[in-house]
What does this fold into?
Amino acid sequence: MIHKAFQVTNDPLKLSQLSIDELHNQTKEAVARERDALVKVLHHLREVERRKLFSIYKRQSLFDYCVSELGYSEGAASRRIQAMRFIHEIPEVEEKVASGKLSLTNIAQAQSFFREVKKQKTQATLTSQQIETIDKLKVLKCLESKSSRQGQQYLCTLDRSAAKIKESTREVAPDLTQVTFNMDAELKNLLQNVRTLLGPKAARAN
It folds into this structure.
């Protein structure tokens, strides 16, 4: 990726003295460097996996290594590993990541989608025409510059069952658990009715 380089300062005092154009250009340069660094990390992770370096550090998997040794959250580790493997499978993805056209979240969603499509293909639940139309490069092209929600909505238009994301839970406090799952319109309306029955406070809850 080629871009015009600007000298970037990290000094808060100097940042406050930048003109609007200078601040804009330096911010764009910092983002470009961040993306370049991300691609380098993905290449390093590929080599770590190839050498099974994680086992030397007594980690059971690359995921465990990323969380325990590199300090990534579980979600961040998973997204980077999936992107790394996608780049290995489809080299064209690297430029999309470096340019910011494809986010790690949408790559992860696409990977989950393709795995489900493959599973359905094995189980013969997809027709040959459906399988043919689900071309990875075409799907990735359509995911470019989309938010994670827009990406998920697009995948649902291809195949609702394949795009369905399993329920996930995360303990955010000893007495508090976050649950994430997809719901159809019928379930959404049902939950809204329950909130209404529970009172105004519950109805306003997110």
Summary: The chain has a mean pLDDT of 82. DSSP finds 13 helices and two strands in the chain. The beta strands are 168-173, 176-180.
